[in-house]
Amino acid sequence: MFRHTILTAGAMAAAILLAGFQEAPAPAPPPQLTPALAALAEDAPAARDFDYMALKAEGVDLKAMSNAVWRRTMGPGRPQRCLTEAEAELQGNLAAAVDAADRATFDDDRAAASDAWSKWMLFAEGIENGQVVTEEPFKWASDRYTALAEEANPRARELLRRTAKDQLYRYAFSGGAQVWGELSPAAKERVNGRLIRATCMLDHDNTEWLKADVAANGWYTIPATGAAASNSAWLMAQHADNDRDFQRRVLAILEPLAASGDIRPANYAYLWDRVAVGENRPQRYATQGQCVAAGRWEPNTLEDPDRVEALRAEVEIGTLAEYQTRMHGHCTGFGG
Length: 336
Description:
The protein is mainly α. The chain has 17 helices and two strands.
């Protein structure tokens, strides 16, 4: 309910005059790439060879320019896209130059990151070709690649191959140091940037593949394709954040299948929350959250906090306390 206040003519005039002085100025538009940097965003070799430390010496706001590269991937009415190769070179080098103490440090970190990425690509290629890894966190992906030979269904085999690679690259964020060794913080940020782009491209490719596959063949149910394939299809949809419409369509498919037991109810719950959070709505099952401090994970806003435990029990995903304890472990390195 609104409360109305009657103003005299004099008071109204004073209010208008005061408002004229108090009105905040319109926010300035975010900085855009300079024409020279915009050209580099279209030319990967040139972006790789550009002298970023000289640009820093000129006093250019490199952080603002780095953010401007990211804004190129966003637009009204469409999902955020992946950085192109040229944009990734430009953004990564701009961000690295912000904190680099001098040119030698900048060059050393870039060389170390390049060497680390080469090691990662060889490691990933080995696992994809059957190399057995027994240490976590890469054991899961290694086991999945090994099991591909036992899958007789070509459709399910391709799905399992794709989700194995999905997880392999995501595990690199936490376990990559096992592959490339210790890196400086700046070099690690460069490698993380490459991983972010690689996983983005994998997710986009997997989403397009799954959309076409499900349209032609229907969903992967446990009775028809087995639990591993059914869970893998859900995981691929869970990571299809670049296509919310597709996630919503999958959610509608999964709801009756969860009720009938043809898929794991937990898969429906996780995707329900993923879609809700992606649409800035409260989640239902408390599966989505974020690190709020070192070693502390908290769920995003809940639809019905008083019923969350009962709702979680319905879809067989354990208590929130148990889930939080597990998720706290993913926040050990959180720095704010």
